[in-house]
Amino acid sequence: MNALEFEHIYFRRGYFTLSDVSFCIKIGETVAVSGRSGCGKTTLFELMGNVVKPDGGFIRYFGKEMYEDEANIRRNMSLMFEEPNFNGERRAEQFAREFKKIEPSFDLEGFRARLDCFGLDEKKRIRMYSKGMRKKMMLAFFLSRNPRLLLMDEPTGGLDTRSRTEVFDMIEAYRREHELTVLFSTHQKDDISDYANRILHMENGGIQ
Amino acid sequence: MKKFLRLSWGADSTPLNLLGAVVLSFFIMLYINTFIGGFGGIPAFIAYAFCFFLIRSVQKAGNRISHFVAIDSARELRYIYFSYAEGYILFYLIMKIVQVFAGIAGWGNIEGKSFGEYLNGLYGTTIMERWAYIFVLIFTISFVLSLFPLVIIRKTSTWLTYAFCNLVFHTIAVAILVIAAAQYIRRADMKKVSCLLDALLLCQIKSTGKVVLYLILIGIYVIVAVFGSYSIARCIYRPKPGRVIAHPEKYVTMTETEIEQARERSRKKIIGISAGTFLVVAAAAFLFVYIFFIQKDEEDRFKQVGECLTGDLCRGPIAYGSTVYVPVDADCDLAESGVALGYLAKQGENTASRYYRLVSANVLYKSINKNHLYLQVAGTENHTYLPMNYIEKQEFWRKDELFLLWDEDWKGESLYSKEVTGYSVCPKKLITKLEEQFGYVNYATDDFKDYDAYFTISGYSDIQQAFMDDVSAGDWVGCILVKDDRFYYGSYENEITGELLELLHSVLGGA
Question: Which member of B6, B63, B69 has the closest CB to residue A103?
């Protein structure tokens, strides 16, 4: 079974179009999406998260479309955008506690341990973190949801080499204990060669 | 709301979004004031602008909670809906309270009204008035809640279509309610109806059953508006099954040159549409201002200029400024040819309420000829007045043969008068003696503030004049004020005592 499947996706926003995008990612794979700025990488992640709806085509998560089993798909999928799309005015620890009330399976202890591992102060407001720290905090948060599918838009953008290694090491550590499929976009050739099993290269609004 | 705000943020808050929220809120405020009436204004404008901007910005940024929480769209939408509803109601109430307190503290409260008086001025004093305001408040809140899908719709054409259809739906709903209310509105009053609130204030529903029917109607409306709009939002917000695209050939990636050309075409189109829209909006705004602010009857600008000094509206004196006037039998058409001065209030009447302006307003008119002494009141009452000092000097009563002592409270036997008919025949001897003893009376408005009983003495040529078809004011002779069981002739300086008092008692026959 595929963890994620795009079948003949068409999408237009302004003068930008995605045309006949089709690919599938098998369970357990780590796939990198590469391409020049503006080629549609972020749009691809927005389509995955149902932020925007495709004009045509099918997106399947573990063999099902979003409308068929939405809560379960959302439960198994963590979508990490470039910047946090949650309340940055909260303290990391405070936010996690609020979050656990809604999603009881959230691993609060694991979250604290991961923050600790990254050397992040959990008492600090999220928006007060630097860009790199925010990315690490987001990763710690999303992994603590125990996802089966981790989608990350530019997870290493703005990170130094050491931080990049820390990020992917943490993902690997998680993968050792859980079955995880990863899809991430990046401009870094090292990320692709070091961590991805496969590359999806985007150009002219399609996958080459 | 707390859940939504604790988790979600990261708004896509560009100045253009803020401008959009302000423009939309302004339109909503105008719509509420124009068609529904009341409960629009600045509080509604600020509450909607803030609430819409806050939630819409999060939505526009694509920041869905369900991206990081295991909840489905339906549950997420419920969070957003409650945030929207609670947010609007909360901000509206806060703004309303601020507005009322600002008013009471002095901003607009130049007459120094108390909290109760100020609220009564806004929302009336009778159950019928308050019922109309409550009805309109429910309608307004339901209307705002029905606009919820505008917060979550991302596609411009769908957004505009929903906004248009919603306004059409509500305009029809308002029309139906006004038509239903029109059955209980006097034909002459129909021309005063410019919105739903006016119709409700003017309709004279007396049966409880019909009031219940009206409440059932608003109940049905609330259900349709709130649940209908929520269902539409849910339909739009939920994930949809994929579909095969009909024309894949249209999805071609454009070259830089093609994009530049398309941008140029788009720029020209936007300028054309903006200019056209500006002209249409300017024309609509001009029409709106003309119809509702310039042309609308001048009564809205009236203030209270006079007050009846007694409860006897037909014969009792009135105060216009510091001058006392009395009713006279004269035909005047000052309401047509004269100048409107402002409202004439009955004793203790509140002229600041919308209900008064619509239903029970009395406007005082004077002649454009400065030598013309008459005043006329037109509205629910219709009387003509002359200044008291002029009447006192003229002594028109001297030619009269019949004198009647009219009790202000003539509906039943009172402490001071046994006559349930409301008048007692007064011998000319009493009149002559009163005039001999007191002569010219200097009437002061303050004397009429706290009397215990009041009687007007009017003179008539004969019984036919006194009780002709219409109510006759007769010729003013004077008045009796009773205070702490003491009787006075027109002023507290003129106490009636001795033989004159006995004669008066024999006429009144009270305790």
Answer: B69
- Sign of the torsion formed by the C-alpha atoms of B396, B463, B499 and B415: negative
Using alpha carbons, select from B431, B373, B445 the residue that is nearest to residue B403: B431
Cα–Cα distance, B431 to B240 (Å, whole number): 93
Extents of the domains making up chain A? 2-207
Cβ of B68 and A81 within 8 Å?
A: no
Q: Pick the residue from chain A with its C-alpha nearest to B258.
A: A15
- Asked if B68 lies within 8 A of A89 by C-beta distance, the reply is no
Q: Is the dihedral of CA A112, A114, A116, A120 positive or negative?
A: negative
d(CA B448, CA B451): 6
Give CA torsion, residues B222, B224, B229, B232, to 10 deg. Answer: 160
Interface of A with B in 93-132 (CB under 8 A): 95, 98-99, 102-103, 105
Find chain A residues with C-beta within 8 A of B2's C-beta: none
- Find the chain B residues whose C-beta atoms sit closer than 8 A to any C-beta of A: 3, 5-10, 61-73, 75, 154, 238-246, 248, 251-254, 259, 262-263
How far is residue B338 CA from its own chain's centroid? Answer: 26
Q: Which residues, numbered 26 to 55 in chain A, qualify as contacts with chain B under a Cβ-Cβ cut-off of 8 Å? A: 46, 49-55
The CB density around residue B191, as the number of other CB atoms within 10 Å, is 8
DSSP state of B248: G
Q: Give the number of other Cβ atoms within 10 Å of residue A81's Cβ.
A: 23
Number of H helices, E strands in chain A: 7, 10
pLDDT tens-digit readout, A104-150: 888 999 999 999 998 988 888 888 888 888 888 889 988 999 999 99
Q: Which helix (H) or strand (E) is A143 found in, with range?
A: helix A131-143
Distance CA(B111)–CA(B104), nearest Å, equals 10
Query: Which candidate in A97, A102, A107 is best for mutational testing of the B interface (most B CBs within 10 A)?
Result: A102
Does domain A2-207 sit in CATH 3.40.50.300? yes
**CA separation for the pair A147, A6 (Å, rounded):** 20
Domain ranges for chain B, please list them.
2-242, 301-390, 395-508
Smallest CA-to-CA distance from A141 within B67, B72, B64, B63 is with B67
| Strand ranges inside B143-263, DSSP E | none
> Using a CB-CB distance cutoff of 8 angstroms, which residues of chain A are in contact with residue B269?
none
What gap in Å lies between CA B205 and CA B90, rounded to an integer? 33
DSSP B16: H
Q: Give contacts of A12 with chain B, Cβ < 8 Å.
A: 251
Q: Which member of A56, A66, A98 has the closest CB to residue B7?
A: A98
Alpha helical stretches, state H, B238-339: 256-289, 334-337
Q: Residue A83 and residue B238: Cβ atoms within 8 Å?
A: no
What digits encode the pLDDT tens for the residues B90-136? 989 898 888 777 777 766 555 566 667 766 766 666 666 777 888 88
User: What is the Cα–Cα distance from B35 to B175, expressed in whole angstroms?
Assistant: 9
Q: pLDDT tens for residues A104-117?
A: 888 999 999 999 99
Strands B495-496 and B486-489: antiparallel
Residues linked to residue A201 through DSSP beta bridges, in sequence order: A34
Write down the ipTM of this complex: 0.79
Please give, rounded to a whole number of angstroms, the shortest distance from the CA of A140 to a CA of chain B.
12
Instruction: For residue B218, count CB atoms less than 10 angstroms from its CB and return exposed for 0-12, middle for 13-18, buried for 19 or more.
Output: middle
